[in-house]
Design goal:
The complex is a heterotrimer of chains A (about 675), B (about 100) and C (about 160). In chain A, strand 1 and strand 2 form a beta hairpin. Chain A has a two-stranded antiparallel ribbon. Chain A is globular, with a radius of gyration of 32 Å. Chain A has about 675 residues and is mainly α. Chain A is built from 27 helices and two strands. Chain B has one domain: Helix Hairpins (Orthogonal Bundle). Chain B contains three helices and no strands. By secondary structure, chain C is an all-alpha fold. Chain C has one domain: Up-down Bundle (Four Helix Bundle (Hemerythrin (Met), subunit A)), CATH 1.20.120. Chain C is built from six helices and no strands. The termini of chain C are far apart. The chains are: A mainly alpha (about 675), B mainly alpha (about 100), C mainly alpha (about 160). At the A-C interface, strand 1 and helix 27 of A face helix 3 and helix 4 of C.
């Protein structure tokens, strides 16, 4: 099999990025041209990524790197590079493949939108940046792509910027992730200062290699933290912002204001996974402090704690949401929490496994939701849906596959295996069993809310006009659904406990641990409980009309209300951070007005007094003699003023003519 | 043509473009931008002469350009402020209309 | 040389098209592209600091001011500014004459061939030059920038109602 030379890695991200640049200038009258270009470029990237994966798999233990100098400043040089290893290339193949399906889906979804051209331009930019992020061998290059991904996400969330909610959501996403990125940037600056390089692997001198790691873990900083812990936590800030971890999760549900394919591509399958990818990528750095038993806190423990809290929070809030995309968004928050939990407990391969499977089934669920929304003329409220099983047979069947994969229905579906790997890792974590218990609770909740979603949307009778007149989406939208459904089933077999191919490929030192049958039984029981509970509450007696209250709201109204309000996070932020910001602004304004204005006014008053004194002396002593001279000057001035036309161009003309004449004269004089 | 001459011809072409913009266009902003181009052309000359000159290690050309850039920034700020003031006075930025200073 | 030719071609093309376009926004954007080209020339010539200063000052700052000026002074009904006037032909003649004169002078002058090696004049040397022999000029430049900023604010802010037409 042919392999991609590592020197040509740059082609993979450049193809879609170049396509974005070209699409930006093709005429808007021909949206098909732009879409075709985007698809072709991404297909090219997919082929190249597969070739690169082949090269990386041929010898997983050695890392193919290609480093080059970006520019030299003073005596140092900024070096960037590409890296082909199983982790990056596997995810690149996933991003390109899922991206290709979502691009295809968008052809149908945005057929009538007049700005479809821009949409494909932004999508291509996003795909290029994301692929660059995955294949970068330098944290600086990674950061550049990271920010580009954020920019593309901002543009796509706000794609329907005429809607105030979309514009607001785009801003919110951009600003919230920027808060995390500030930490990432600080971490990078610190890392550069401490090690003198930002290359990941550089023949023994990269930041992820033994020499730098031992230096970083050996030094301590404020509070007795190892430098590697501090830097790792700063990098994790960026990852938490991008991956919607508590407390920076608030932007992800609002990001659903974007077109649904965007939600599928960016806010479910790829971009939000970038945070998990970053944690997996710098895992050696995060794990460097594990050798220090006296450290006050280990970076990975923080990661695990944040992940556990996020997984439970997201699952709990998803139970009480009524917007089909919001349910999926909070489910994404929760699943990302799982992945962080896995990475924090040391099983970053399990995190990546879940990332891959989750990307497939969450993209499937979002595209299914998009198909539903498209078919029902933009009806997103599950209370007014219902009974779509007969009307949308393909969407319904594939959505059910996605639901079962997400809920973790045993054995056949991929989500089960990856979730199992995570639970196994959490169970075996030496530090604490608390995250494991939290994750078990989240498993049950996940099964419950996904059953609720499926029952509300597809079972029973239609409860709204949109649902009554629904019709199946065109083939260009259903084919990606079918492909993703097949992938959602088959991907799981890459990492079963009996044949952990994926884990071994990612991490050659991975050892499959025996046992876990009891654990598996527990989790299967929890999933069954969740599905049963969901079915008895929502499926057996579907609600009769859109205004009927939620069964959960009837039995535990307080809890349901709090969850529906997303536990008040947004309000809390508005009341604290927003208030603080406003107060600071008001204080600055008051300072300006009272203190600085006072100073300025005092100076002005001084000037006025000086003027009065000067005027008095002028009029008495000096004026007499000058008046006579002034009259003479005025007469001559009037004569000269005729030549002043006031036309700025005229003056420049004279300048130019004068210059040409002078230069000609000089040249001729020299020639003679 | 030696590299130095190539650089100088490049800068001469840029200068002429700026000059044409100043002479032909009537929009004050474009005229200002033409002036900026001419300034940039001058900077190009400094760098070219520094690069191929007799004493590059002294860095005179670079120092000159650093100061010229600072002055250019000041010039652009004041110039564009003037354009805005002009717009407030006559509701457009047409240079031909700004003749209140005629004698 | 090929790199220089490419940079020069891009820069000049961007500038030429910018100055010929009717839409000021497009002009401004193309001029920014041409400023980037000039920064590329500085990089090519080995003056990295100047290149970054060019990017920061022109591409970063001045371009923003220009765009703001364009947007603030755009007529509400947006009749495009007349691109051609009676001065077009003589203007091109004068510009061509200046170009011819300058190019002729350059090409006929016995200029030193110079070395191909990039001069060893990095950021450190430049910093020493700026802060030791030219410290006074640096301070004066700072003062100039401050005064220019204040002046620009005063000019653009106007004096309230009396200035309104």
């Amino acid at each position: 099999m042919m392999h991609l030379p590592v020197q040509l890695t740059w082609l993979i991200p450049t193809l879609p990025a170049a396509a974005a640049a070209v699409i930006a200038v093709v005429p808007a009258r021909r949206p098909g041209l732009g879409a075709g270009l985007a698809l072709a470029a991404l297909a090219g990237s997919l082929i190249l990524a597969v070739l690169a994966l082949g090269g990386a798999l041929a010898d997983p233990a050695t890392r193919l790197t290609h480093t080059f100098t970006w520019f030299a400043v003073g005596h140092g040089a900024i070096r960037l590079g590409w890296l082909l290893d199983p982790l990056g290339t596997l995810l690149a193949v996933m991003v390109a493949a899922v991206g290709l399906l979502i691009f295809t889906f968008s052809l149908g979804y945005l057929r009538e939108d007049p700005r479809a051209k821009q949409f494909f331009c932004f999508l291509s930019l996003f795909a290029g940046a994301m692929l660059g992020l995955l294949l970068a061998n330098s944290l600086l290059l990674l950061f550049v792509c990271w920010e580009l991904v954020g920019l593309a996400s901002y543009l796509l969330i706000g794609f329907w910027f005429q809607r105030p909610a979309a514009a607001q959501a785009a801003r919110k996403a951009f600003i919230t992730t920027r808060i995390g990125d500030l930490g990432l940037l600080l971490g990078l600056v610190w890392l550069q200062d401490a090690t003198g390089t930002l290359l990941l692997f550089d023949g023994g001198r990269g930041v992820l290699e033994a020499e730098a790691l031992s230096t970083l873990a050996g030094a301590t900083t404020v509070g007795g933290l190892a430098v590697s812990t501090a830097i790792g936590l700063l990098l994790f800030c960026g990852a938490a912002g991008k991956s919607g971890q508590v407390p920076l999760h608030v932007w992800l549900p609002d990001a659903m204001e974007g077109p649904t394919p965007v939600s599928a591509l960016i806010h479910a399958a790829t971009m939000v996974a970038a945070g998990v990818f970053l944690v997996a990528r710098v895992f050696p750095l995060l794990a460097a402090d594990l050798a220090l038993p006296l450290a006050p806190v280990h970076a990975l423990s923080v990661v695990a704690a944040v992940g556990a809290v996020t997984s439970l929070f997201g699952a709990a809030v998803a139970v009480a949401q009524d917007d089909i995309k919001r349910v999926l968004a909070f489910s994404t928050v929760s699943q990302l929490g799982y992945m962080m939990l896995a990475a924090g407990t040391g099983a970053w391969t399990a995190a990546i496994f879940h990332l891959l499977t989750h990307a497939c089934f969450k993209a499937l669920l979002f595209l299914g939701a998009g198909s539903v929304i498209h078919a029902t003329h933009h009806e997103q409220d599950i209370r007014r849906l219902g009974g779509l099983r007969e009307r949308l047979p393909v969407t319904g069947a594939t959505f059910a596959v996605g639901m079962m994969a997400l809920a973790g229905v045993p054995f056949l579906f991929s989500g089960f295996w990856s979730k199992e790997a995570i639970l196994h890792a959490a169970h075996g974590w030496a530090v604490s069993q608390l995250p494991f218990l939290v994750a078990l609770a989240a498993v049950a909740l996940t099964a419950f809310y996904m059953t609720r979603l499926l029952a509300e949307v597809f079972a029973g009778a239609p409860r709204g006009h949109g649902a009554e007149t629904a019709h199946e989406s065109p083939a260009v939208m259903t084919i990606p659904l079918v492909v993703l459904a097949i992938a959602s089933v088959s991907l799981g077999f890459l990492g079963t406990p009996w044949w952990p191919w994926l884990q071994r490929t990612l991490d050659p030192t991975f050892k499959a641990e025996a046992g876990g049958a009891g654990l598996m039984a527990v989790s299967i029981a929890l999933v069954a409980t969740g599905i049963l509970a969901g079915w008895t509450r929502y499926g057996r007696h579907p609600r009769s009309d859109a205004r009927a209250p939620d069964p959960l709201a009837r039995s535990v109204p307080r809890l349901h209300g709090a969850l529906a309000a997303r536990l008040g996070c947004d309000e809390l932020y508005a009341a604290t951070l927003g208030r603080l910001n406003a107060a600071l602004a008001a204080a600055a304004s008051a300072l300006d007005r009272s203190v600085w204005d006072g100073c300025v006014r005092f100076l002005a008053r001084l000037g006025v007094y000086a003027g009065i004194v000067s005027r008095e002396t002028d009029e008495k002593a000096l004026n007499g003699g000058f008046n006579a001279a002034g009259d003479g000057l005025r007469a001559s001035g009037r004569a000269y003023a005729r030549t002043q036309t006031g036309d700025a161009h005229g003056y420049v003309w004279m300048l130019a003519a004068g210059f040409v004449l002078l230069a000609l004269g000089a040249l001729l004089g020299e020639a003679r | 043509m030696s590299p130095l001459q190539a650089c100088l011809v490049f800068s001469a072409a840029l200068f002429s473009l700026g000059l044409i913009a100043v002479l032909v266009r009537s929009n004050a902003i474009l005229v200002l931008l033409g002036v900026e181009l001419m300034l940039n052309a001058a900077n190009l000359n400094f760098i070219a002469f520094w690069r191929y000159g007799p004493t590059p290690a002294e860095g005179h050309g670079v120092v000159f350009v650093v100061f010229a850039l600072a002055v250019a920034a000041a010039e652009a700020a004041v110039g564009l402020a003037l354009v805005i003031a002009l717009h407030r006075h006559q509701r457009n930025v047409h240079l031909g209309d700004a003749r209140r200073l005629h004698g | 040389m090929i790199a220089l030719a490419a940079i020069a071609l891009c820069t000049l093309a961007a500038a030429a098209v910018a100055l010929a376009l009717r839409d000021l926004i497009h002009s401004a954007l193309l001029l920014i592209a041409s400023w980037v080209g000039i920064a590329a020339f500085y990089l090519w010539a080995g003056a990295e600091f100047v290149a970054f200063a060019q990017v920061l000052i022109y591409v970063g700052a001045i371009s923003m001011v220009v765009l703001f000026a364009v947007l603030l002074t755009r007529p509400p009904t947006a009749p495009v500014s007349p691109a051609r006037s009676g001065r077009a032909v003589p203007g091109f003649l004068a510009g061509g004459a200046v170009l011819g004169l300058l190019a002729g002078a350059v090409l006929s002058s016995p200029l030193p061939a110079g070395t191909d090696a990039t001069p060893a004049f990095g950021v450190r040397e430049l910093g020493l030059k700026l802060l030791v022999p030219h410290a006074g000029a640096l301070l004066a430049t700072g003062a100039l920038l401050t005064v220019a900023l204040l002046g620009a604010v005063v000019l653009a802010a106007g004096r309230g109602k009396e200035d309104a037409p």
